[in-house]
Amino acid sequence: MNILVLGGGDSPEREVSLRSAKSIASAARAAGFNVQEADPKNGLSCLDNLAPQTVVLPILHGEGGEDGELQAELEKRNLPFLGSGSESSKNCFDKWQTRLILQKSNIPVPKGVRMTKESYSTEPLAKKPHVLKILHGGSSIGTLIIRDPANVTSAQLEEIFRLENDTVLESLVEGLEITVPILDQTALPAIEVRPPEGGEFDYENKYNGKSAELCPPLSISPEQHGKAQKLAENVHRVMGCRHLSRVDTIMRPDGSFVVLEINTIPGLTGQSLYPKSAAVSGLSMPELVKKFVELVKRDYSLS
Prior knowledge:
By secondary structure, this protein is an alpha+beta fold. The chain folds into 3 domains: about 1-85, Rossmann fold, CATH 3.40.50.20; about 90-105 and about 175-285, 2-Layer Sandwich (D-amino Acid Aminotransferase, Chain A, domain 1); about 110-170, 2-Layer Sandwich (Dna Ligase, domain 1). It is about 35% helix and about 20% strand. Strands 8, 9, 10, 11, 12 and 13 form a 6-stranded antiparallel beta sheet that branches.
């Protein structure tokens, strides 16, 4: 079986994508696949003249890789690929569209509004603890957690609105961060994320090894764990996702859950949450890649 791993791209998440793709390509070789690697930043000529039944693994995070654009091109070329289709990818990448779809299915999300730099100062929710997120993005890039609105600086705000003027402002939900990976349509073990003392689970603390990532979670009961998994499976289904995703939630002190977002191509580096959960469920990285390829072969009727 021939595998084409796409990694890199030109989004702000390029470096994480390169690490994820390298991890997947290495695991695919260990699993016995014939592996090619390419960076879409250099164009899509890598998709021309592929060997018959080549499976494409688009391990790309952010704009151009996770937003449905690449998926639409793969669909146009009738190439078998891992992950959600173009429409689902587009909806999941747009944080506001995700909220609207989840709300229609009565899936709980934080109170929020869509806004711009010009409307931020007059927005009532901005006067309380909140989270400001660019409309399109991931890996905690373009996310600002504001616990004390009186202390937010103009430099912090400028950094967010420099990335994108369209943002989502959500009420800060206090509680435990529980993230749930999905493989096919089934939840893997959930992960409890504990940022370092006095810190947030931001881009820096996501990759510097200082956050505790407990799988399975230690601070929730088996019943709550099951509830988180069922919620994540429902989000994956409602958003029309395929093969894999990761659903980020907060469990509030009363035991209820709120969905923060869904990632259709979650991080797959050696430090990433998805592979850690897969390992707890008994899947090594080579075995996980084998499963990915099996799912693509199934859905595209490949031999």
